[in-house]
Write a structure and sequence with these properties.
Elements (H helix, E strand, L loop, with lengths): L6 H27 L4 H17 L3 H29 L12
Helix pairs in contact: 1-3, 2-3
């Protein structure tokens, strides 16, 4: 039992939390900023990916990689969220023009 490797469970839980956080970020980001928010997701994704290459700790490197690629996924989702809003599946921001 003392030879168990907990990295898989830890990374699984962290990945689950990161993905869970990005769902509302995409929805709120599109609501308040429209699809322009994609640039923020790109910058964050590139930064996290670059840092994941530099960091020596494998655990932190993998977490940054998951975070970076979740940001890249957010770019795609922001444009799909715009379509979901147009289809009426999510509320429109009354302060924005569509």
């Amino acid at each position: 039992m003392e030879n168990l490797n907990y990295y898989g469970l830890i990374l699984g839980a962290i990945s689950f939390l990161i993905i869970g956080v990005f769902h509302p970020l995409v929805i709120k980001g599109e609501y308040y900023f429209g699809t322009r928010i994609w640039l923020v997701f790109l910058i964050v994704g590139l930064s996290a990916s670059i840092f994941s290459l530099i960091i020596e700790s494998i655990l932190i490197s993998v977490v940054l990689g998951v975070f970076g690629f979740s940001s890249f996924w957010g770019i795609k989702e922001v444009f799909e969220q715009e379509q979901r809003v147009k289809d009426g599946r999510f509320p429109k921001n009354p302060k924005r023009k569509y």
